[in-house]
Write a structure and sequence with these properties.
Blueprint: H1 2-27, H2 45-75, H3 83-113, H4 122-150, H5 152-155, H6 163-177, H7 193-205, H8 207-227, H9 235-238, H10 245-268, H11 270-276, H12 280-310, H13 316-345, H14 361-364, H15 367-396, H16 424-448
Helix pairs in contact: 1-2, 2-3, 3-4, 3-6, 4-6, 4-12, 6-8, 6-16, 10-12, 10-13, 12-13, 12-15, 13-15
Length: 460
């Protein structure tokens, strides 16, 4: 255990150093490559070195989790892994294998950015980035889903749905996630239609565990509401603790994932993607999926995890402030993301400075939506400030006391998950098979039939 804890601190040190290097390069205007840092845009070599250190830190934490899991399995033979630990295993398995692509990309970009290599293969770099880029979002989603499945039922006085289903959702999300990255390149030349079709199919396959989650969670809500006396078709809804920020924030996050998932289907579809690619629609989409589904879940976590760690209690006053913050954030995100979706459908591009394109009528039609985006952004800033205040208050000024770490129990008489769900070696082999099926052929094609490479390009 000591070695694992030491490994975690080593990983933290790597990540802290890497983040500092990356941040310094951005502040010095030596890394104008934004989040999608693939070629031909180039940053300072230290930017890429920082990314390498960041990944090494992640890998150190991954190996720590894997070692801990192995020790637990040996000490508890024949016992199913606790649900939160199973989610953690899934998250770090996905972290490790998703980060392999970005590691290879960054290692090839370091000598290129230093001028030691004249050109780089742009298509290989883009593909390796999206091997990682799309999975990163779903790593956050998997963490949020662990709270939906395991914590939220306890907060509403219910039980979790079914251990077998929950673990199967984790397994499917881990196996199916990485091959979905190509839908970010669906308009790229040099990729055959058959390969694009394969990746569209794989991207849409993620809908299966997502729909399983929707079914399971609303079943949990209804059962809990009816236990509390809810009658009629929808009477159980009124019995849920809507005034408890620990439930309200993740509940709105779950509801937001419905339109977020629908927007993802649009992004993934070949024909529909032609309409919205590189427009503000895409920005609106990830504001819904990340800014609401993930971030609001994390906000909700703060209101029980911070008091738990600080040995303090959540007061009624702070709970009310949390409800207000949740509402402000929700309204702000609806205004911002909704207007971004609408402006994107009208052709408003992403990643560009403001311009009216010579007062063209189409560009002028975007301006009202951009005003609404600004209004939403102001509300989001207010929401962030309230959240920061709430966290510091709960850490240092809330009344001393004990706060429960909420973990839901199974229904009475429910069978434990079968032991085949614990076969992570098998799930990793299946993951590698699916990744190989999705990436080996196109990447080899990009290498063997490579177009002329690109020198480093800096926009400013």
């Amino acid at each position: 255990m000591f070695n694992v804890r030491k490994l975690a601190w080593v990983g933290f040190a790597f990540m802290l150093t890497g983040t500092a290097l990356v941040a310094v390069m951005i502040i010095l205007n030596e890394a104008s490559v934004l989040y999608t840092f693939y070629p031909p845009l180039a940053a300072h070599p230290f930017f890429y070195v920082g990314l390498v250190l960041l990944v090494l830190g992640i890998w150190a934490c991954c190996f720590g989790v894997f070692i801990n899991y192995s020790h637990w399995r040996k000490a508890h033979r024949g016992q199913p892994t606790p649900l939160l630990a199973f989610f953690a295993m899934g998250v770090f398995v996905l972290w490790f294998f998703a980060s392999i692509g970005i590691t290879i990309e960054v290692l090839t970009l370091i000598p290129w950015s230093m001028g030691l290599v004249e050109t780089t293969n742009v298509m290989v770099g883009r593909t390796l980035f999206w091997w990682f880029g799309h999975s990163l979002v779903n790593i956050w989603y998997l963490v949020a889903a662990s709270v939906w499945y395991v914590v939220v039922p306890k907060l509403i006085g219910g039980r979790h749905f079914n251990e077998k289903l929950i673990k199967l959702v984790v397994i499917l999300l881990v196996i199916l996630n990485i091959p979905g990255g190509f839908h970010h390149q669906i308009v790229d030349p040099g990729i055959s239609l058959s390969i694009k079709y394969l990746h569209v199919f794989m991207s849409l396959a993620i809908a299966v565990p997502s729909l399983m989650t929707a079914f399971a969670m609303f079943a949990v809500f209804e059962r809990a509401g009816r236990r509390l006396g809810g009658k009629g078709l929808l009477g159980w809804l009124k019995k849920l603790p809507w005034g408890d920020v620990r439930f309200l924030a993740p509940m709105i996050a779950m509801i937001a994932f419905i339109p977020g998932g629908a927007g993802g289907i649009v992004n993934t579809s070949n024909q529909l993607n032609q309409v919205i690619h590189n427009t503000l629609w895409v920005v609106g989409h990830f504001h819904v999926t990340v800014g609401m589904s993930v971030v609001m879940t994390f906000f909700g976590i703060c209101y029980w995890l911070v008091p738990y760690l600080a040995k303090r209690r959540l007061t009624a006053k702070m709970n009310r402030l949390g409800v207000i913050q949740t509402i402000i954030w929700t309204v702000g995100m609806v205004l911002m993301a909704g207007s971004q979706h609408a402006a994107g459908l009208l052709g408003d591009p992403r990643r560009t400075s403001f311009t009216t394109y010579g007062d063209h009528s189409t560009a002028l039609s975007w301006i009202p939506y951009e005003y609404v985006m600004g209004m939403g952004a102001v509300l989001l800033l207010i929401g962030v400030l309230i959240q920061v205040y709430a966290v510091f208050h709960m850490m240092f000024f809330a009344p001393k006391g004990e706060t429960e770490f909420p973990v839901a129990e199974a229904e009475d008489g429910a069978a434990p998950a079968p032991m085949w769900t614990e076969r992570w070696g098998l799930w990793i082999v299946l993951l590698l098979m699916v990744v190989a099926m999705a990436y080996v052929v196109p990447i080899m094609d990009f290498i063997l039939n490579a177009p002329p490479g690109s020198p480093p390009i800096k926009t400013w």
